[in-house]
Amino acid sequence: MTTTMQWLFVAALAGLPLVMHDQYFFHVLIMMGIFTIGAMSLNLLLGYTGQLSLGHVAFFGIGAYTSALVSLGFDIQITETYTFVLAPKPAWFSLICSVTLAGLCGWFIGKLSFRVRGAYFVIVTISFAEVVRLVALNWVDLTEGPMALNNIPPLATALPGFDSGPLQRKIVNYYIVLGVAVFSFLVIKRIIQSRLGRAMVALRENEALAKSVGIDVTRYLVLAAIASAAIAGAAGGLYAHYVRIVDPDVFLFIYTVTMVIMVVSGGKGTLAGPVVGGVIFGLLPEFLRGHTVPEVQWMIYGALMILIVYFLPQGIVPAVNKWWTAYRSKRDQVVATNVSLGRNPQEQEG
Question: Which ranges does the record mark as transmembrane (predicted)?
Answer without folding.
Answer: 24-45, 57-78, 90-109, 121-140, 171-188, 220-239, 245-264, 271-288, 300-321
